[in-house]
């Protein structure tokens, strides 16, 4: 399929951790860290157009799925579990549908499952999905951490002012959540220019989805989604749950788009995902 950058860390059952947009292998490691410390081998690829994986490795969602399958072949992994977040939804759902023998279990965290429409204007999207926009977010997080947390929570979630203030206070009082936040923001802004092609391609591909082959997915599937997600709306989770036979849908109450790391119940939700996955890959 072409070159693909990836990280490979930890020991145990292999777990392919696929980042959202913007992102890269570093964001995949952030997603996978809770699994790594609980006994999984985490493989975090940079999807095409991100960091050192050229866009020519896979422009379309089906090509990206095939590229991920080829990476598993390259690593000699016949079958493994897959976790994806946000914009990875198109690629991981296609992977599970197109290569059913390779995917033993699937966890989709706030994932796109149908046509994606950004909740911001075209102008705002152009400003953010740029080298300047990605870098600015990281710089603001470094120097105006509280304000950046507040802005991101407010923008990425459907919470009222009091709920936003409460969530920000909760995050600021939790060093682990702050660490997750800073790591995530830098997975947008570090080497920002090398993330722009992938992010723009994601928007084009996800915005052109007619229908994903969800009915063809046979792997046990856990769908985790925030009820207050204002980026990838909860309707995506409902759509995936409705079309993937036997899937389980776990809501994170009042969770915004970063709820797997930053919600009030994030620790419990990650623990649930770890236990669910461990059960599926060992039985």
Q: Spans of 5+ residues with little confidence (pLDDT < 50)?
A: none
Annotated CATH topology: Rossmann fold
Cα-based radius of gyration, to the nearest Å:
17 Å
The first-to-last residue Cα distance is 32 Å
CATH superfamily: Alpha/Beta hydrolase fold, catalytic domain
* Integer average pLDDT: 94
Side-by-side strand order of the widest sheet = 1-3-2-4-5-6-7
**Total domains, how many?**
1
CATH class: Alpha Beta
Category by helix and strand content: alpha/beta
Summarize the amount of helix as a percent range.
Answer: 40-55%
CATH-level-2 architecture: 3-Layer(aba) Sandwich
Keywords: Acyltransferase, Hydrolase, Transferase
GO molecular function: acyltransferase activity; hydrolase activity
Organism: Thiorhodovibrio frisius
Protein name: Putative hydrolase or acyltransferase of alpha/beta superfamily
Brief summary:
This protein is about 50% helix and about 15% strand.
Q: Would you write up a description of this structure?
A:
Helices cover 49% and strands 13% of the residues. The protein has one domain: Rossmann fold (3-Layer(aba) Sandwich), CATH 3.40.50.1820. The protein is globular. The chain has a seven-stranded mixed sheet, with helices on both faces. The model has no long low-confidence stretch (mean pLDDT 94). It has 283 residues and is an alpha/beta fold. The two termini are 32 Å apart. It has twelve helices and seven strands. Helix 5 packs across helix 6 and helix 6 crosses helix 7. It comes from Thiorhodovibrio frisius. This is Putative hydrolase or acyltransferase of alpha/beta superfamily. Keywords: Acyltransferase, Hydrolase, Transferase.
